[in-house]
Design goal:
The chain has 229 residues and is of the alpha+beta class. It is built from five helices and seven strands. Strands 2-6-4-5-3 form a five-stranded antiparallel β-sheet, with helices on one face. It holds the Pfam family SRP19.
């Protein structure tokens, strides 16, 4: 009997600083109803008109932390850290607990995750290139720190399911391909943070919340090269 194919599959490595087009692509979900984002937290929100200043910030999509997705689909953490269908609001809460500056964009979607809209952009580096938070020097560490906070965050922040279906989304996309609409302004994204507001130019490191520090002690520290399974 042949034993070929029974060995362990090679681990997938994501190099720190690597980027793919998805991270900064603008892929708005057409005509997403407001009910797609039920329970979105309203505290500590300020609206911004121009999101171009956040172009260099790191993107986080729910699919990065979804245990139901493979690494090939877009998961960015190991299954031991992944959770069941997180939402963009959960990511925003977790990043907020780390006291990092963030931008919440509910209208953006990952092209492989149409039914789970929203993304979060995080300021990982100061303008001078130094880490915004010394304990989170790279994106892989950020993925792991956020993942460790998600279980508790998802218990405390409950959200209703969106009231649209995959069939409705596919129909809208088909219509867009046949008759592209005229360009129109993108809804203003929101910036949220539990930390006291500070200028974007500030290089003063923030301090993670007690919950974030507790989550970090309970798991392995992030490494430069994250090996995913």
């Amino acid at each position: 009997m042949s034993h070929q194919g029974k060995g362990k599959a090679p681990a997938v490595t994501i190099e720190d600083g690597s980027d793919d087009d998805i991270d900064n692509m603008d892929f708005p979900l057409p005509m997403v109803p407001a009910s797609a984002f039920p329970g979105a937290p309203e505290r500590n929100i300020r609206y911004v008109e121009d999101s171009s200043q956040f172009k260099s910030w790191i993107c986080l999509y729910p699919i990065y932390f979804d245990r139901n997705r493979s690494v090939q689909d877009g998961r960015r953490v190991g299954k031991d850290l992944a959770v069941d269908r997180p939402r963009a609001q959960h990511l925003a809460e977790a990043v907020s607990d780390l006291h990092l500056q963030l931008l919440f964009e509910p209208e953006k979607i990952h092209p492989r995750d149409f039914l789970n809209p929203g993304r979060v952009k995080v300021q990982l580096k100061n303008p001078d290139g130094s880490p915004a938070l010394a304990s989170i020097p790279n994106r892989n560490t950020l993925y792991q720190r956020v993942a460790k906070l998600l279980p508790e965050t998802m218990q405390s922040v409950t959200l209703d399911e969106p009231d649209f279906t995959e069939e409705e989304i596919r129909k809208q996309l088909k219509q867009l391909m046949e008759e592209p609409p005229a360009p129109k302004p993108t809804p203003a994204p929101t910036m949220r943070s539990n930390a006291a507001p500070r200028a974007l130019e500030s290089s003063t490191p923030a301090t993670p919340s007690k919950k974030a520090a507790k989550a970090e002690k309970g798991g392995k520290k992030g490494k430069k090269n994250a090996r995913l399974v």
